[in-house]
What does this fold into?
Amino acid sequence: MDITAESVLQRTPEQLAGISFNCACGLAHRVHMRKMILEEGALHKVRELVHELNLGRKALLVADSASFAAAGKALAEQLSRQGMDVRLSVFPEEQWYADEKAIVRVLIDVEPDTELIIAVGSGTINDIARFVGFKAKIPYIVVATAPSMDGYASTGSPILVNGFKKTYSLASPVAIVGDLTVLRQAPRDRSAAGVGDMLAKITALCDWLLASVVEEEPYCDVIAGLMVKALTGIIGSVRSIRDGEERATKLLMEGLVLSGIAMQMIGHSRPASGAEHHISHYWEMRHFAAGHRTELHGIKVGVATPIVLKLYETLLEADAAALPMKEKSAGQVAEWERRIRQSYGPLSEELIGMNRSLLLNQSELDIRRARLIGNWPELKRKLREIMDLAPDVKSLLRQVGAPADPGEIGVSPEELGDALRMAKEVRNRYTVLQLADQLGLLERFAEEMASLHGD
Ligand SMILES: [Zn+2]
Ligand SMILES: [Zn+2]
It folds into this structure.
């Protein structure tokens, strides 16, 4: 059967699992994850799923103390009763970081004849299991315990190596299981973080559109359409998500898994991550270097989203296409390098090298500006459409019980200003931060935001 764009847009994440199709955008999209079960009592279907996907009988179940209590223990007992050989690798405390030590701990528990890894947990446990499964060439499935982040179906794991976070490109889980009974009982800050990670897609999608015009990056209307559909449902259900209602929890979890599926389809993280994620990474690095405990990922990107939206508003009001783009002077480049060294310490030389390609000369800037001018009315209209999905992101964050201002998550006005100036160097990727910089507006915006949040 031919799969059309319209039929893809009608599908739930469960129905998108395992599909591949040639898209109108010119790319062939493929979802590597083969199966998803999201319903009440889904834990009882794990044995059947393992059998159906032919994943063997000998499994290593990876969990931490919290996720073991929430679902891991019951699942291990049940699978053992059903004839599987389940070995446990359970962290004695709640695991906050995927680092070298955690990975080796799980690797020690992998046996030569382990056929399957079952990750029971959310972000960190999933990241560890993905890494170990990929390196040991063992397929893994995830049993989700909280709708807290969008990494379930993603193919990369951020791992702390020597104290710095590095994202490794690995593999998708073969299957994702979400038991709504378990997900609804997750602590409230987890679903609040999940909503934050979804609201962040508003600015991520704006950045993707912007990059498709200014940098002529490939863009897919079908994938963006899937994300908008998921976002719309979640935005309309924020209070019910906070209250742990079944239908709303399902919508949130579907949106989070869909974000990973969208990344699998397009082969990069554009549909799910933009400037708001870069700002959050910047804060995280600063806080980690200072020895502070960091907030949940979704909480940080949620706080960064209204700030990036404000920058979009500023550029739309200033009629960005009417403004000049000027090449940086030698003095400005030297200042740029100085700031990177100051912000990024041991990573700075690598980041300077990586980002030099984004420092454009005047003729390269003229080309970008011509693209912006040529597409401005349509780009403006499309950006506005996405931004209008949630005219008041801060109030949505508050409704779900999440912090909405940088100060509430320990980000000082100075760290806010620095993040706006420097977060674009975290990844070699074009976002609204680069556009504002090219138009000479970024410094003033950073100062304004820092003083606004300093009162
Ligand atoms: Zn995220
Ligand atoms: Zn496409």
Summary: The chain has 20 helices and ten strands. The chain has a mean pLDDT of 94.
